[in-house]
Each structure stands twice: as C-alpha cells, then as structure tokens.
Amino acid sequence: MTEVIDKQTLKERIEAVKGKREFLLNLLEQPDLGTLRLDVNQALEELDELVEEAAEVFPE
C-alpha cells in the first residue's frame, strides 16, 4: 500500500529532519563516542544530502 503525502506535509517532515542535524552535531562533541563517531558522521552526510536534494525538488 502506498501512502500519498501532500507537498506541505513533506516539507514539514523535511524541516523536522533538518532539526535533527543539531542533535547529531552535539553527539560528535561527546568524548566517549568511540566507534559510533563513524556512524554519526555518516548520518550527517546522508542528512545533508537529503536536505540538498529536497531543496532541489522543492525550491523555496
């Protein structure tokens, strides 16, 4: 089953995802992160790509 999402809802969800970036940046500042640092960096890279692609599809 496919869920249909209107443009405004999608934009709101993208904004919510953008808000998670600050959380990930704060995680990187934790000295005891260990090998999870790689996963957090990867998540940041993927989040940035997602936001960039969304900006191309839905220019302001």
Describe the structure.
There is one protein chain. The protein is mostly helical. It has two helices and no strands. The chain has helices at 7-28, 36-57. Helix 1 (7-28) packs antiparallel against helix 2 (36-57). The model has no long low-confidence stretch (mean pLDDT 89).
Q: What is the count of β-strands?
A: 0
- Output the number of helix runs: 2
Structural class label? mainly alpha
Looking at the structure, what is the overall shape?
elongated
Low-confidence stretches: none
Run of helices and strands: HH
Strand content: under 5%
Largest sheet: none
- Average pLDDT number: 89
Distance between the termini: 30 Å
Q: Over the alpha carbons, how many angstroms does the gyration radius reach?
A: 14 Å
* Helix proportion: over 70%
What's the gist of this structure?
The protein has helices spanning 7-28, 36-57.
Helices, strands, pairings?
Blueprint: H1 7-28, H2 36-57
Helix pairs in contact: 1-2
Notable features of this structure?
60 residues; mainly alpha; elongated
